[in-house]
Amino acid sequence: MAKPYYEFFCPVKVIAGNAALEHIPFELATLGAKRPMIITDKGVRANGLLSPIEAAFSTTDAVIGAIFDDVPPDSSLEVVRLAAELYRNQNCDAIIAIGGGSVIDTSKATNILVSEGGDDLLQYSGAHNLPKPLKPFFVIPTTSGTGSEVTMVAVVSDIERNVKIPFTSYYLMPHAAILDPRMTMTLPPHLTAMTAMDAMTHAVEAYTCLAANPISDAYASAAVKKVSENLFKVLDNPNDAQGRLELAQASTMAGIAFSNSMVGLVHSLGHALGAVAHLPHGLCMNLFLPYVLEYNKEINGHKIGELLLPLAGADIYAQTPANLRADKTIATLLTMRDRLFSLTKLPRTLSETAKITEAQLDEVAEKALNDGSIIFNPKETSLKDLRSILQKAW
Prior knowledge:
single chain; alpha/beta; 10% strand
C-alpha cells in the first residue's frame, strides 16, 4: 500500500559502465568547467587509479588544475581548509572526488568553502544552511559501500572539540556519480566484503524502516539482489569487472534508497560503536544487522520476509512458508556473514573485533539511544533493549 504522503529526490546523474571515466571531461564541459581539482587520498594515488582519469583529460582542452591527496581516513575541518586553499590558489572551477567515504565527505565540505568563500565551515553545519548551488562536483567511488555519491550528507571531524560535524543540504549532492569497475578492482577482499555489507545494510534498513516508500523500496530490493548475487563471485575472482560494476551499482542504489527513506537501529548502534571503539562503519553494520532484524521482527516481519526473494532467490522464497520468511531472511544473512568470515576474516561479533570490552557496552548503548537514526526504527527502543542487542552481538 502506498503511503499517504512521501517525497523522493535524486538529482544525481549516474554514469556507469566500462569507459565511464572517459566521459568526465565532456560532462564537466556541459557545466562550464574546464579546470577541475581532484581530491583523493595517498592510497588511491599509489594504486594508480588516477591514471585513466588523467589520460581522459590528455585529449581535451580541459586540464586537471590541481590534485589534493592528503585526505586521512577520518577527515577534519583543517584538511578541508587546506584543500580549499589549493583550489583557490590554482584557480580551479570544479571538484572531482576519487575515493571512499572520507574523500567524498571532504570534497563536499571543500565545495562549500570554495563556493561560499571564507574559511568558516561551521556556519553551514546542520541541516539546509546552504543558500545556493555549489561548484560543479563529480564523485568517482573507489569502494562499493557508502553510497555517499548520491546523498546530501557530509560528516567532518572537529579535532579540537573531538566531535563529528554533520552537514545536510540538497546542494551537497554531486552533479554526477561515475561508476567504473576499474576503480574498485584493487579493493582487497576484506574491504570488498565490508563495504558490500555496508551497502546491504543501507538497502535492508531503507526497505524495513519507518520512512520506506514504494520508490525507495524498488532501489533497496534491487541493491540487496545485486550484493547477494555478486559479492561471492567477486571474492572468488577479484578481477571480475562485471561483478565489481554490479557491486558499485548496488552501493549507489542503496544510497539513493536510504537517502530517501532513512535508516534505523543498525545505524544507531553502528554510529555509537564507531565513536567508542573507532571501528570502520561497514564493519559495524555487518556486526549488528541480523540482531536488529531479529529485534524488529515482531513489528515488521512481513517486510523482512519480503527481502528473502532478492536475498536468496525465487526457489528458496517459494519453498519457505510466508510466516517463516523473516526467520529465513535473518538466517540467510547469518550464513553470509559466516562465509565472509571464513573468506576474509570480517568479524561477526563484537568479541571477534578485539577492539572493545564488555565494560564499554553501556557507553555504546547510551550513545545509540541518542542517535538520530533511532527515530526511524520500526520498534520503540529502550536502553535495556539496546544493551540486550549488544549482548547478543557480543
